[in-house]
Automatic annotation (TrEMBL):
The keyword Cell wall biogenesis/degradation does not apply. Residues 230-367 form the GGDEF domain. GO terms for biological process: cell adhesion involved in single-species biofilm formation; negative regulation of bacterial-type flagellum-dependent cell motility. Keywords: Membrane, Transmembrane, Transmembrane helix. Pfam families: GGDEF. This is diguanylate cyclase. PROSITE patterns: GGDEF. The chain crosses the membrane at residues 12-31, 160-183. SUPFAM superfamilies: Nucleotide cyclase (SSF55073).
Length: 369
């Protein structure tokens, strides 16, 4: 049972499903980790807003030095400070700015350029205030932008998560549907296969086992008997004067009679290890495993009676006015090593003796008698 399951299409499909689901789940986890990595990278980019703040802090410090000098004396050499301020301001000014930031920065830009031309203490102080304002403004904007990004990130993450869940659900639903269809088809094929197997060993008219299956069982009967230490029996059954029956009643009635006799045999020999075959024409065969002489003889007597009890009219029979049968049987004793061919020959000889002795009877082969 386990071996069949391991070889079945169902197991292979289950393995396919597990593989697909595992792939989807791993892909989802990897995708999620990449999103987190992306978030970190973008977060670092947004925190790069600190760079403009650093630039502005440098500008503020330099303006502080200039203002401190101008407070003490009028003539101050602030060329180096001016050079640093203009250099840092140019970087800050040309960096990315939002629309609102650009409006604020443009108003201050001209004032910074003019401050060195006018060289007044109060102007430097005023610029210093403006730069400090920009530092606070940039800090606030950085937090605003980061908050907006985090909100967008959460929305994107949720969107991705729900899409992944939906994809997994739909994939699972499709896979389950495919599995059910394949299992259904597999069951149908199994049923059909069993049907064809049964049909391959069954006689179409009588529904008994056919000659081909008889050859298989009968050829192995001695080996089965030897292996299990069983006595086994083979019975040949022939309907008496069946040719005359067909000539009198027609082949259609002959087929009906064959079916009735076959059904009677099948119902009587319906236990485990009992096999009934149609050997051809009006001839039948019965193989019985694990049996003895007394049981066999009782079976043969019963079969003669049961066929007569069918009361199938046969007015051209030379012995009775109803259908009857003649039988020949042989018992195989374990380890007697008689070939299947000889067993068949001896059973056939026994059947011939039954016919020779007047029919409607049986004869059991007894070696030496």
């Amino acid at each position: 049972m386990l071996y069949k399951f391991l070889k079945s299409t169902t197991l292979k499909l289950l393995m396919l499903v597990c593989t697909v689901l595992a792939t989807l789940i791993v892909s989802a986890l990897l995708f999620n980790s990449q999103v987190d990595k992306l978030k970190k990278q973008i977060d670092d980019i947004y925190f790069a807003n600190l760079i403009p703040i650093i630039k502005l802090q440098i500008i503020s410090d330099k303006y502080q030095e200039i203002a401190s000098c101008r407070k003490i004396k009028y003539n101050c050499d602030f060329k180096s400070e001016q050079e640093v301020i203009l250099q840092e301001w140019e970087y800050y000014y040309n960096a990315y700015k939002t629309k609102d930031e650009r409006i604020v920065v443009d108003t201050i830009n001209q004032e910074i350029i003019n401050s060195f031309k006018e060289n007044k203490y109060n102007i430097f102080l005023d610029i210093l205030k403006r730069v400090d304002f920009l530092i606070k403004y940039e800090t606030q904007e950085a937090f605003k932008q980061r908050k907006a990004f985090l909100d967008d990130y959460e929305q994107m993450k949720n969107y991705i998560f729900y899409n992944i869940v939906l994809i997994l659900f739909l994939s699972f639903a499709v896979i389950v549907f495919i599995i059910l269809q394949v299992i259904k088809k597999d069951k149908q094929l199994t049923v059909l296969n069993k049907k064809y197997q049964i049909e391959a060993i069954t006689d179409g008219m009588t529904q008994l086992y056919n000659r081909k299956y008889f050859d298989t069982i009968f050829d192995n009967m001695p080996f089965i008997s030897n292996a299990n230490n069983w006595k086994c029996a083979f019975i040949m059954v022939d309907i008496d004067y069946f040719k005359q029956y067909n000539d009198t009643y027609g082949h259609d009635m002959g087929d009906i009679t064959l079916k009735k006799v076959a059904q009677t045999l099948k119902l009587y020999f319906n236990k485990k290890y009992e096999f009934v075959f149609r050997l051809g024409g009006e001839e039948f065969g019965v193989i019985l495993f694990d049996i003895n002489e007394n049981i066999l003889e009782n079976c043969l007597k019963d079969m003669n009676k049961k066929i007569l009890e069918l009361q199938i009219e046969h007015k051209n029979s030379k012995i009775l006015d109803v259908i009857s049968i003649s039988m020949g049987a042989i018992i195989y004793n374990p380890n007697s090593y008689i070939s299947a061919n000889k067993l068949y020959k001896f059973a056939d000889e026994s059947l011939y003796k039954s016919k020779e002795n007047g029919r409607n009877q049986y004869h059991i082969y007894n070696e030496g008698k």
